[in-house]
Amino acid sequence: MANILVFDSGMGGLSIYREIRRALPAHDYFYCFDNANFPYGELSEAALITACTRLVSHMVAEHAIDLVVIACSTASTIALPSLRAALTIPVVGVVPAIKPAATLTRNGCIGLLATPGTVSREYTHHLITQFAPGQRVLLKGTTELVIEAEHKLAGRPVNMALLQEVLMDWMEGEARPDTLVLGCTHFPLLNDEIRQLMPGCQLVDSGDAVARRVAHLLATVVGRPSQAVVQARAYCTRLDAEAQKLTAPLQAWGLSSLEEVRY
């Protein structure tokens, strides 16, 4: 049994946590979100690296973490090298699922829906060049839908008019993508709403690939003897009234408690 930390700035990492726990249920999980600095896409690179490294290092030491998953594309593309240099345990990041999308598309047109930071990263463009040569990859960066995903998890209705406005130019015409890469971990939380607006479009995210990578790495991790009770708890960096509203939704995802990280 291992202690696995899944980390994000907000609730988007739950889409990754869900896939990992589904594949590997017999481990203890710690879901930590840095809501004091949310959203990460609005931080400078230096501030993001400092925030991630400090918080993740604290959680690793405090809870004897065996493996870390950075369930945030923005943090993965910016802070992963610093985190791996600071820690002695495996650290897994997430990247936009360009490679599987390139094998699935039928019309050769792929949409990448991500945060503005991920869309503009050189790393993202390298993935497209490497795995989707000769295919048309349309890029769209949005922070509004990150907020909408957070609202949905908290029980608020999704603003479908806003979602339609963001996706409008991909919803019609011969050049519309038939495969959509959800390049932010928040966006799988909006799967149903996106499918409603883009019926027939294949939605691809990184959850399954990350779960497979975690399973592979756990084979090299020396964890603790198995226990009868498996735990899953959530932590945040600011337990204010808004965060407390997330207690019930988090419990619905199998996370038994929500505590504030003190570091």
UniProtKB/TrEMBL annotation:
Q: What's a Gene Ontology MF term here? A: glutamate racemase activity
| The protein's role, per its UniProt record | Provides the (R)-glutamate required for cell wall biosynthesis.
Keywords assigned by UniProt, alphabetized: Cell shape, Cell wall biogenesis/degradation, Isomerase, Peptidoglycan synthesis
Broadest EC class?
Answer: isomerase
* Pathway(s) of this molecule: Cell wall biogenesis; peptidoglycan biosynthesis
Q: Active site at which residues?
A: C72, C184
Q: What is this protein called?
A: Glutamate racemase
Q: What EC number(s) are associated with this protein in UniProt?
A: 5.1.1.3
Belongs to which family? Belongs to the aspartate/glutamate racemases family.
Please tell me whether the keyword Isomerase is annotated for this protein.
yes
User: What reaction gets catalysed by this protein?
Assistant: L-glutamate = D-glutamate
Matches recorded under Pfam families: Asp_Glu_race (PF01177)
- Chain sites annotated for binding substrate: D8, S9, Y40, G41, T185, H186
Q: What PROSITE patterns does UniProt report for this protein, alphabetically?
A: ASP_GLU_RACEMASE_2
**Isomerase listed as a keyword:** yes
